[in-house]
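Need the bound structure for adenosine-5'-triphosphate, inputs here:
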Amino acid sequence: MPPTTPPFDTTPIVVFGPSGAGKGTLLQKLFAEFPDRFGYSISHTTRAPRPGETHGKEYNFTSMEKFQEMVGQGAFVEWARYGSNCYGTSVKAVEEVEGRGRCCVLEIEMEGVKQVANHPTFPRPRFVFISPPSPEVLEKRLRSRGTDKEEEVLKRLEQGKKEMEFAKSGGVNPKVVVNDDLERAYKELKEWVVGKES
Ligand SMILES: Nc1ncnc2c1ncn2[C@@H]1O[C@H](COP(=O)(O)OP(=O)(O)OP(=O)(O)O)[C@@H](O)[C@H]1O
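Answer from helper R.:
Posting the output first, comments after.
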């Protein structure tokens, strides 16, 4: 699969998969190997900025009223409410990454993936699902990552099952990369993302 339009294909890439499957680990490798090729979009949020956070840098901070207005206008590729705050990726934020000549990478969860796939105007991105080799390995990785309490681990595993079912359901028909051996999985992801030229 060669790179397409000059200098390369900037069609956004949606990365999803169970928590602990290795999305962050794989993307970190990709961004490190290709520092000028990819970018994350700046999300909108209704939560207040934390000390040190700047509007337009970490997030586009916005009021709930404005956020809801944008939802009504179809301005978000995907959005969600977590607790009392809303978070979303705007079409414009994705286009800004493309405008900088970079390929926008969206690392999102299942509900967001469904919204992206069903968005009325947003062009279809490329979908890749990062799968753990097995549920047992996923559990082991989540535990050895050591970032979550027991209750959180169980919640992530439960949600992970739903993500696995969704990926198989044919809704978005993603490229599937099984993250068994990290170097092998990375090579497969890289070849799918950038082609075999690198
Ligand atoms: N191929 C692999 N073999 C062994 N361990 C791995 C592999 N890939 C990732 N890991 C480890 O598994 C854990 C989970 O990986 P990571 O944090 O990248 O997952 P994630 O999908 O980004 O999770 P989240 O959605 O919660 O951010 C980490 O401790 C990571 O170092």
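Comments: The pocket of adenosine-5'-triphosphate is lined by residues 17, 19-25, 141, 145, 179, 181-182, 185 (CB under 6 Å). Residues 70 and 76 are 7 Å apart (CA to CA).
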